[in-house]
Amino acid sequence: MSIVREWYRRSPWLAAISLAHLALFAILALLSITDPTQIMGVGRWIKPIKFCLSIALYLGALAWFAPAIGTVASRRTPYAIAAGSMVVEIIAIVVQAARGVASHFNEGTWVDARVFNLMGLAIGLNTIALVWILRLAVRGWRAAPDGYRLGIALGVLLTLGSSAIGGLMITSHAHTVGFADGGPGLPFVNWSTQGGDLRISHFVGLHALQALPLVGHLWGTRAVAVATIAWTALTVLALALALGGRPLLG
Predict the structure, then answer these.
(1) What is the mean pLDDT of residues 40-66?
(2) What is the pTM of this model?
């Protein structure tokens, strides 16, 4: 509980939004048990569940890192943009799931196209916020260089790189390479077991934000530098497998 109180103290409103996503995660998890409706062969609430958890981790990490990312005033705007864009994203995904249609790459109707465009705008704004946060994180590391602050800066940088992979999926209008989206996949994550899947490298890059600062905090600057190289290599390997049309397993 002391960790939770400290997390909340660092950025109360951002921690609250993160907790709200966790609460929504729990509600949708219950819905997924009772509602058999599927979208492209997958329970319709699975994608919102995954996004709720991912957004909670993302915003929760930013809340924890707040003291190392500028002053309250300097981080207020980029934090607000990041949080706002994620709220728009999850609302769009949940609404589309409730309608029984795909949220991503769906331009089948005027409404679906507008929702997908809105999601793209939200992700674009979040990318701008991340660039802003990266600048603040680098300044924080220069002012007080240590492994933890370096891990934050490098974690944000790799998260930005994963956003570029997300952009590749948007321009391709698909996340599977070599097969149509919606085929057989791994449990829960639904990563394709037939062809390449860009979501894997996207996932790996995104969660450097949580891993690298922890490595830096525990083992220092040299360890976080090595971990960053390894994490980048893993992300690139996953991307290469996907672009080559090769599944993670199989």
Answers:
(1) 96
(2) 0.94
